[in-house]
Write a structure and sequence with these properties.
By secondary structure, the chain is of the alpha+beta class. Helices cover 24% and strands 31% of the residues.
């Protein structure tokens, strides 16, 4: 029995780095709650490894948690990061600065249900997320940063490489058509088993 327990522990996904839980279940709903998160030097290597970066130079997430209706909360903020990735052509380090507006609505977990259909429109509003006692702003920051990363970073001046691998008679997918799916695959791998 103990050996089986050890094997299950080895197969368990690694815990998410940069957890920043904010209790909301018992918080007053009369006013917004401002937040200002910054990745500390000790956080950066763990976050970089988790997201597959060469390094993370900075990560900040500022905004407010706003009460909505009787029991929902909405997080609105601005994510800023400086990341170092590897050029997919030359393998040299590539530094990118990222600034993204982030907005997410949270509903009590007892009211949460999965949508009947998933909308892949990047302009559409994200589906609400469930919350228990807390909202994890660190997880939201990492999800948002993961989506904002360039899946095919290139060093300045390096042209894109066009590679086609399609069955005979099939229309090849363009790089632009593949980008959303690459980002979804990364998210599924990173957050699918934890979230």
């Amino acid at each position: 029995m103990a050996k089986e327990h050890e094997e299950n522990d080895q197969n368990a996904p690694a815990p998410l780095p940069f957890r920043r839980l904010v209790p909301v279940r018992t918080r007053s709903r009369r006013q917004p709650l401002p937040f200002d998160l910054t990745a500390e030097p000790a956080d950066k290597p763990e976050i970089a490894g988790f997201l597959g970066l060469e390094s993370l130079r900075s990560l900040g997430f500022q905004g407010e948690i706003l009460p909505v209706g009787e029991d929902q909360w909405r997080v609105e903020g601005r994510l800023r990061a400086e990341v170092v990735q590897t050029c997919v052509v030359t393998l040299v380090p590539v530094t990118n600065r990222i600034e993204e507006d982030v907005a997410r609505t949270y509903v009590p977990e007892e009211e949460f249900s999965l949508p009947d259909e998933i909308d892949f429109d990047p302009e559409s509003e994200d589906e609400p997320e469930p919350y228990g006692m807390s909202i994890d702003l660190g997880q939201l920051a990492l999800e948002s940063l993961s989506l904002a990363l360039d899946p095919y970073p290139r060093a300045p001046g390096v042209p894109p490489i066009d590679v086609e691998a399609t069955p005979p008679g099939a229309k090849p997918l363009s790089s632009e058509e593949l980008k959303p799916f690459a980002k979804l695959a990364v998210l599924k791998e990173k957050f699918g088993e934890d979230g």
